[in-house]
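Pinned message: reference record for Pectate lyase
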Amino acid sequence: MYGILQLRIHHCKVVGPSSVRGPNGEMVPLGQMDGDAIRLVTASKVWIDHNTLYSCQDGLLDVTHGFIDITISNNLFKDQDKVMLLGHDDGYLRDKNMRVIVVFNHFGPNCNQRMPKVRHGYAHVGNNLYQGWEQYAIGGSMNPSIKSEANYFIAPKSGNKEVTWRNGINENSKPLMFYFVGDVFENGASFIQTDLGGAKPNYNDQQRFKVADAKFVRSITKSSGTLKCFRTIMC
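Predicted structure (tokens):
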């Protein structure tokens, strides 16, 4: 599967164990499905675009087990505790090669955390609209490199107004790289930057892209989610 778009997925439930076919033809056991809207395992070169995801039993989007080159764009995520997880677990080192772009999405209303949460690897998060959060918006563990660029963060009226969350920091830990440039912070939102040198992308110059100024994020994300398409009307 190379593209996932125009889906409306909600109210997913837990089901029994199952397997999928991996990139080398081997069967990869998934274990018990935990109620995610979309779950990618050992995936590469996948585009997830213009979907509306909400109210599922676990998360809305999980991408795990050695994935690479994933683009998540123009989606609407709402009414969910755990929104998006990138990286299997702290001990799964293959996810260090992760490259993922999260761009032009609308998070909210009623999203709590993981927009996204990143383990290992590199994530470029740009031109997204964050309509509040309860615990945090962007989180990380196991030394990920996260570049937040030209996003629009609207903090909740009360409670935690800090955008970021990081786990596993002690005297023996490598520093997590949280870096922002050109973001807009509204209603008291704040972003604790941990690496002033900038999060380094692990892709080449030809794979880079420019984002728009954050002042345009509201209009850019106005069409996030499933499009209203008809035979006689262009999307």
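Pinned by admin. Summary line: The radius of gyration is 17 Å.
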